[in-house]
Design goal:
Belongs to the methylmalonyl-CoA epimerase family. With about 190 residues, this protein is an alpha+beta fold. It is built from 5 helices and 10 strands. Strands 1, 2, 3, 4, 5, 6, 7, 8, 9 and 10 form a 10-stranded mixed sheet that branches. A hairpin with a 4-residue loop joins strand 5 and strand 6. The chain starts with 7 loop residues before the first helix and ends with a strand.
Length: about 190
């Protein structure tokens, strides 16, 4: 009875299977299959040449709605040891924000500012808070808006507004984005 196969083919098969298993665990990032971080609208369109070209960039932040901004701020700063900014009121968006620097991206802690804040409505449905949206950078927000409108993706405002980073932003309707509220920000 032979317990080990000595053929090169069998060794290669076992090694390949092991690499696949390790990639999925996330413990060995060098074994992960590289994923492209930039896509063009042409790659998203149903036929070539449809619409202007714009590039999707890096994840800028993940926004989390919180019922108590100071408590959330203290948790990320004092418990997790993150670099945490000061609260910034954004009355034009109906929120106060605090950015948590994570090195490769940020978290944006959101708290309602005023009774008609969209975050107030979110927190009524989600008392403990939770993930509100993801923000992805684009290289040309105006071209992206035109292209997305042509593709029947609903945008939650008539035009881009200035966001928390002082750059133009738009929000895409979650029903058109797999249930996720997506913010696009000019890079």
């Amino acid at each position: 009875m032979q317990f080990f196969h000595s053929s090169e083919q069998e060794t290669e098969r076992v090694t390949t299977r092991l690499e696949i298993e390790l990639r999925h665990t996330g413990l060995f990032p060098r074994l992960r299959t590289p994923v492209s971080t930039v896509r063009t609208s042409a790659s998203l369109s149903s036929h070539p040449g449809a619409g202007p070209v714009w590039n999707l960039g890096r994840l800028n932040h993940v926004a989390v709605a919180v019922p108590d901004l100071e408590k959330a701020r203290a948790f990320y700063k004092n418990v997790l040891g993150a670099e945490v900014g000061e609260p910034v009121p954004l009355p034009e968006h109906g929120v106060s924000v605090v950015f948590v620097n994570l090195g490769n991206t940020k978290m944006e802690l959101l708290h309602p500012l005023g009774s008609d804040s969209p975050i107030a409505g979110f927190l009524k449905k989600n008392k403990a808070g939770g993930m509100h949206h993801v923000c992805i950078e684009v290289d040309n927000i105006n071209v992206a808006v035109m292209d997305l409108k042509e593709k029947k993706i609903r945008i939650l405002s008539e035009e881009a507004k200035i966001g928390a980073h002082g750059k133009p932003v738009i929000f895409l309707h979650p029903s058109d984005c797999g249930g996720v509220l997506v913010e696009l920000e000019q890079a």
